[in-house]
Design goal:
By secondary structure, the chain is of the alpha+beta class. The protein has a five-stranded antiparallel beta sheet with strand order 1-2-3-5-4, covered by helices on one side. The radius of gyration is 14 Å and the shape is globular. The chain binds adenosine monophosphate and zinc ion. The site of adenosine monophosphate has 13 residues, from loops.
Amino acid sequence: MNDCLFCQIIEEKIPAERIYEDEHVVAFSDINPQAPLHVLVVPRHHIPTLNDLGPDNESLVGHMHVVAAQIAAERGVAQAGYRTLLNCNAQAGQTVFHLHLHLLGGRELGWPPG
Ligand code: AMP
Ligand code: ZN
């Protein structure tokens, strides 16, 4: 989608610190990191929110988590612990309406989240 920020990052029209990519997903550093490690894992295909997923997307969502776990291991936070999350719609604080998994690590993470 032309007006989607993350589509433009995926298409390299907007720069980002890319960490990983394959045929299904691109992972890049969050521009406003909330932890020492804050990476977004984003499907190449434009899907606005979790509410827009269907049965065909099950493997994609699983893959997003496998990629996050690989990045956590590579960045040295796997043993200490880290968090993955997806915000869905306004009340959860979603601001970019292209599905993205947050990977947060490198510090103590509070619970429950705000
Ligand atoms: P959410 O609030 O779950 O929709 O998360 C959107 C995330 O995208 C936020 O953590 C932002 O800091 C991040 N973000 C916004 N613009 C950019 C950008 N140009 N490059 C990387 N991350 C971004
Ligand atoms: Zn998009």
